Amino acid sequence: MTTLTVRPIDLSHEAPALAKLCWDYRDLLMTRTVHVPDIMERYYSQSDYAALIEQLPDIHARPKGDILVADLDGTPVGCAMYYLHGTGSCEIKRIFVDQSARGYGAGEKLVRTAMTRAKSDGHDHMVLDTVHTLTEAIALYQRVGFVPAKPFYEPDPAYIDTLRFFDIQL
Q1: Which of 76, 127, 143, 150 is the most exposed place for a label (fewest CB within 10 A)?
Q2: The domain spanning residue 84 has which CATH number?
């Protein structure tokens, strides 16, 4: 029997697993944004992304954020994280499930767990952005209640047709 769990990550010994999931997420984005190749350099250059991965524990620090991991039979196969984004609001980021674990509900469980924990942390609103080619992710966000929203930051006009924004009241 396959067991799926979602829990806060223990970075004292799981930082390499989180880094791998984040790099795999970046690889997926690269394949889904070939129509705007410069977007990866702008938002996810290799050097900036490496620095970002190192900063994730600080960016998503408790009690206003968190980093969650999905385990399938004890192996980390997905992640999601959120952090404070204005008064009462948080942003969920880097929602990713490894290809080998898709179809088990890990993405939905990650998002729902993040929403529940964010609400418990005092957030009443969650926002996210994504690219229009991540159709599976967009379907997931809408299935759990996210609705299309106006940008919550000033996007580069070159990418406005590629980016999608969503929010939800928690």
Answers
A1: 150
A2: 3.40.630.30
